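Consider the tokenized backbone below.
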């Protein structure tokens, strides 16, 4: 939950800030305004996405307000997310225990869903939908996707996104990467800082071995991929041309531009790509924060430790000593996908093979709870991995990790 706490005389600005946040993040963030005079306790249970925005002026901040801030920081410790917003440039020192945090000076001319304040909120939450910390990697085949990629790159850049236009594409059958270069190392480095791989899936794209490498590398990094599938009107097929991406069940279908069309994409097509990309980024961020938060809570409440093994791959270790000789160790992967994506299962298996396994290995997914027969098929490649929904974690731990096989 996000609370906009406002001092007397700041209600109008606070209401506008709350409305801008709701618009920018498309309802994915629960936003409420709260007057300092009415501040008592946080109006919801502790959650992973709690953020306190403090809107204040030069007048003295009430004791009730500083107490609310102090309690917010005390309960969340190092995880506390707080943003002071000063309506008056003279009020640079935030109230209470927030005084050590640099305040953002409110600029009425830079408000709205793409304004500076919303950029800061997005960065704090990790969404970065309108900020320059989001890096979108655009993969394309130059023979029939260069104009599309260039137009899309320019469009995303004007909106404040940090988009990376991949230049390592075949030119008359030869890659633009210099001879003698480590191609895989260059692809790894380019993708390492990305939040999303935007694949321009044109008819020539599947013939590119470099695009295939980029897709495989992204899968290995558990980097989300959003195919933009361009097909001609007579083409009745749907979905990505890359077989490995069909399991995503998520893509943007668009009409292939006519040869020589300038610009190749219409405003509506650009908006559709943007909306789908931002929605996907929102969903991915929520899962990165929410699923580990829920799983950690179940383990810790049962006296297990919780250690991050790989923050990018969302792999964790939990352990519990039963006596001097007996210890239970559990390795868990919290998936960011809204279904069980097989490349993610394979990557988790590879991680376990490289680092060693505990007593139990859990692949934890989100979204709709799948029936047992589907889980059997998915886990067939590694019978030592337990595939389950995060809602089932508590029951599994309480059963001492007893699992039943479907006959």
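A designed sequence for it:
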């Amino acid at each position: 939950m996000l609370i906009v706490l406002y001092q007397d005389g700041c209600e109008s600005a606070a209401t506008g800030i709350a409305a801008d946040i709701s618009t920018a993040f498309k309802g994915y963030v629960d936003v409420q305004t709260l007057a300092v005079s009415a501040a008592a306790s946080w109006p919801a249970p502790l959650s992973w996405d709690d953020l306190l925005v403090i809107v204040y002026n030069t007048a003295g901040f009430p004791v009730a307000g500083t107490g609310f801030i102090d309690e917010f920081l005390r309960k969340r410790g190092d995880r506390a997310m707080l943003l002071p917003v000063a309506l008056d440039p003279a009020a640079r020192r935030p109230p209470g225990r927030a005084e050590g945090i640099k305040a953002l000076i409110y600029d009425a001319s830079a408000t709205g869903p793409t304004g500076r304040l919303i950029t800061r909120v997005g960065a704090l939450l990790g969404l970065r939908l309108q900020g320059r910390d989001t890096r979108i990697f655009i993969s394309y085949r130059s023979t029939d996707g260069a104009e599309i990629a260039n137009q899309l790159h320019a469009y995303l850049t004007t909106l404040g996104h940090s988009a990376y236009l991949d230049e390592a594409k075949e030119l008359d059958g030869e890659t633009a990467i210099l001879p003698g270069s480590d191609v895989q190392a260059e692809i790894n480095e380019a993708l390492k800082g990305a939040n999303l791989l935007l694949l321009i899936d044109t008819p020539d794209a599947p013939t590119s071995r470099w695009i295939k490498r980029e897709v495989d590398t992204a899968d290995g990094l558990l980097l989300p991929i959003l195919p933009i599938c361009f097909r001609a009107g007579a083409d009745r097929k749907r979905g990505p041309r890359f077989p490995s991406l069909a399991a995503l069940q998520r893509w943007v279908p668009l009409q292939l531009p006519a040869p020589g069309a300038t610009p190749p994409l219409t405003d509506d097509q650009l908006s559709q790509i943007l909306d789908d990309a931002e929605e996907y980024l929102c969903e991915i961020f929520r899962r990165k924060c929410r699923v580990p938060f829920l799983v950690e809570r179940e383990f810790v409440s049962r006296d297990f430790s919780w250690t991050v093994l790989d923050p990018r791959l969302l792999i964790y270790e939990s352990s519990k000593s039963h006596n001097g000789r007996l210890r239970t160790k559990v390795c868990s992967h919290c998936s960011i996908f809204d279904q069980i994506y097989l490349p993610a299962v394979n990557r988790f298996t590879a991680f376990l093979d490289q680092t060693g396994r505990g007593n139990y290995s859990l692949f934890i997914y989100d979204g709709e709870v799948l029936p047992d027969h589907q889980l059997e098929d998915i886990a067939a490649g590694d019978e030592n991995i337990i595939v389950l929904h995060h809602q089932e974690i508590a029951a599994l731990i309480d059963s001492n990790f007893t699992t039943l096989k479907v006959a």
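Residues 127-133 have pLDDT under 50 and may be disordered.
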